[in-house]
Structures are given as C-alpha cells and as structure tokens.
Write a structure and sequence with these properties.
Elements lengths: L1 H34 L6 H15 L6 H10 L8 H7 L12 H6 L2
Helix pairs in contact: 2-3
C-alpha cells in the first residue's frame, strides 16, 4: 500500500514538472513572436489602426498619422475634417443656433 502512494506522489511531481516546462516554453514562444512583430512589418498595421482611431476622435495627432492616413485612407464614415478633405467630401454644416429672441417668438 505505501508503495502505491509513493508512486502517485512521484507521478504527480513529474506531471507538475512537465506542466511548468510546457508553460515556460509557451511563454518563451509568445515573447519571441511578440518581439518579432515589428520586424515582420506588422508594426505599421498597428500604427495605422491607431492613426484611424485618432482620426475618429477628431483628427490626426502627428505627422506620422497624417502620412499613414494619406497613404492608406481613413475608415468610411470617419467624420473628421482631415478625412473629409482627404476623401473630397464637403464639410459638415453645423446646425445654426437660435437666439433667445427667435425662440420666444416662434411659439
């Protein structure tokens, strides 16, 4: 009986060791892939998405953003003035605000 308990303990220790090694290998692989994204040209795709997000929030924030948006374009429906000029769309007409006098007389 004690022999089987010892065998189970050794097996569970071996399984734990294998699990830790596997997790370490997976983490190392993830780190090596993440570090190589810039080298594979995927860094510019991330920069482009950040530039498009800045354009949706009101406009490009840097010359790099302007360069990327000019090269690859804005997303359709982006309502910033830079993207409108880039796509040749007319500027959005802002609604005119009524004065307090015209509000009183329109009733």
């Amino acid at each position: 009986m004690p022999n089987s308990v010892l065998r189970r303990a050794l097996l569970s220790r071996e399984m734990l060791r294998r699990a830790v090694l596997s997790a370490s290998a997976a983490l190392g692989l993830m780190v090596s892939l993440a570090g190589g994204l810039e080298a594979r040209g995927l860094g510019e795709a991330g920069e482009l998405e950040a530039a498009r997000a800045n354009a949706r929030a009101g406009g490009p924030t840097s010359e790099r953003d302007k360069d990327l948006l000019t090269r690859y374009g804005c997303l359709s429906g982006t309502n910033s003035s830079f993207c409108r000029r880039l796509e040749g769309r007319a500027p959005v007409a802002k609604p005119r605000r009524q004065s307090s006098k015209s509000k009183r007389t329109s009733r």
